[in-house]
Amino acid sequence: MKLFRTLGVVSALALSTLASASASGESILVHVPFSFVAAGRDFPAGDYRIQNGDNGTIYIQGAGRSVITMSIPSGVARPDAVPNLQFARAGSKQYLVGVQSQLMVRSIPLPASEERKLTLSR
Fold this sequence. Notes:
Blueprint: H1 2-24, E1 27-32, E2 36-38, E3 41-43, E4 46-52, E5 57-62, E6 65-70, E7 72-76, E8 84-90, E9 93-100, E10 104-107, H2 112-115, E11 118-121
Antiparallel strand pairs: 1-4, 2-3, 4-5, 5-6, 7-10, 8-9, 8-11, 9-10
C-alpha cells in the first residue's frame, strides 16, 4: 500500500512538472531595432529574449535590463505563423503590446492614459 501511495505522489509530481515546463518553456530571441517601453520601463534597441511564463506572465530580458509583465491570451497561433512582437506608437514612444509565439498570441495591457494615444504597428 505504501508503494502505491509513493508511486502516486511521484507520478503526480512528474506530470505537474511536465505541464509546467511545456507551458512556460517557450521563448523567442529577437532583435528590436528601436527603443521601446514594456511594463513601464524603457528599453534601448537591441537583442532580447521574450519568454512566456506561467499564469500569463511574460519575461523580457536584454540590453542589461529585465522586466516581468502580465498578459492576456488573445488567440491561438496559426500553424504557419512566425513568432513576432507587436508594438503600438504613442507620440514618440513605441510600446510592446503583444507577443506571438509558436503556440499562443498574447496581448499586454497598457495604462489607460497611454491607450488613447496609440497607433498599432509591427
